[in-house]
Design a protein that fits this description.
With 213 residues, the chain is of the alpha+beta class. It contains five helices and eleven strands; from the N terminus they run H-H-E-E-H-H-E-E-E-E-E-E-E-E-H-E. The chain has one domain. The strands form two sheets. Strands 1, 2, 5, 6, 8 and 9 form a six-stranded mixed beta sheet that branches. A five-stranded antiparallel beta sheet has the order 4-3-7-11-10, with no helix packed on it. The relative contact order is 0.23. The N terminus is likely disordered.
Length: 213
Amino acid sequence: MTRIIVVALAALMVASAPALAHPHVWVTIKSTLVYTADGSVTGVRQAWTFDDMFSAFAVQGLESKQKGAFTRDELKPLAKVNVDSLKEYDYFTYAKADGKKAAFLDPVDYYLDFDGKDAVLTLNFVLPFKAPVKADALDLEVYDPSYFVDFQLAKKDAVVLAGAPAACKVTVGKPQEMTKELAQMLAQIPAGEQIPSNSYGAQFSNKIAVRCR
């Protein structure tokens, strides 16, 4: 299982040189907010599809019954390592309910799927709130503060409200485009230093805003 440990996201996110300040992993995300009958949100169901290069590296050396295809069972150990690794980074998901931070518990119902046609991995998991959230304004952001991983909302069905009251509406804000000036600033960060949280990486945040009024 050495290969599985090597491809854990935590290991990939250690930027040891200025050249690593820009993204090296690309992820397309779909998010589903799960509501209960009383209008509370219990959690966020995430589907993160990794780029083909990362996916190819992740499955390299993994045994499978069918060449070029992997079942959920065969990917189970890799899914666990990735989910466990994400804890240190708060699962790159940040939430506020009526302006106050809303905490998450550890993920449940997680698994990896492999799309043989596009040769990409998709990590699926549910991120439960520590307590059900009932708020007029719920704001979610998905981003990597270090900007080693580039998150992008899917072009279609990026955000779904499952079971939400009719009054709830969602809007999304996509990250800004990388500029030459910002790329130069990222490259100037000394080797071994963390990119400050809520600064560079936050500028590439995917914003989900739900209003129930």
